[in-house]
Amino acid sequence: MKTICPWVSDNQLYIDYHDNEWGIPVHDDRKLFELLLLETFQAGLNWLTVLKKRENFRKAFDNFYPEIIAKYDQQKIQGLMTNEGIIRNRLKIMAAISNADSFLKIVKEYGSFDKFIWKFTSHKTITNQWKNINEIPSKTKESDEMSKELKKHGFKFVGSTICYAFMQATGIVNDHTMDCWRHNK
After folding, report:
1. In 31-66, which positions are buried (b, 16+ CB within 10 angstroms) versus exposed (e)?
2. What 3-state class would DSSP assign to 173?
């Protein structure tokens, strides 16, 4: 039996996410946007809640295409507010739309979101050497800086803790514990 990070429950969705996504470097702009959008909705909630609704989010938010999301109108917003398959928080929905617009502006300025977002770690994964999950921080100086820069570019719901979770999810940071089979992969 393989050893996995202790934060993973016995829920198969969580196990699959841990084994196949979490901590694996992401450089595709749309995938980066998807994870940032999902982290926005996760604020104050359990990540498993978001994972369970991920496919509903994918359908509701047009497969996470920021070009489409940035143009959402009041009718679309009202539809999202009545969609029981997603997290129906008006502030988060409005942030997702605003963030899509900010995302597109960064892509235009930097050539890709990937180039912008990976600069906070000099375009390299930070591989930590945690023995225990209690050692893993909820934010770092890099996530503080990322949060500050994203806010400067107009993003909402991107505090340092959300940014650090995003960094973990996208492999900008490898926080698999040292005994986890994914740590050295």
Report:
1. ebbbbbbbbbbbbeeebeebbebeeebeebbeebeb
2. strand
C-alpha span between 20 and 13 (Å, rounded): 10
User: How far apart are alpha carbons 16 and 25 in whole angstroms?
Assistant: 16
Residue 38 is encoded by which pair of tokens?
């999902």
Q: How many residues does the chain have?
A: 185
Give per-residue pLDDT as tens, 42-56: 988 889 999 999 999
Closest CA to 72 of 36, 118, 37, 121: 37
Enzyme catalytic residues: 17, 39, 47
Question: How many C-beta atoms surround the C-beta of residue 116 within 10 A?
Answer: 20
Q: Are 126 and 173 in contact (CB under 8 A)?
A: yes
pLDDT in tens, 134-182: 999 999 999 999 999 999 999 999 999 999 999 999 999 999 999 999 9
User: How confident is the model over 69-109, as pLDDT tens digits?
Assistant: 999 999 999 999 999 999 999 999 999 999 999 999 999 99
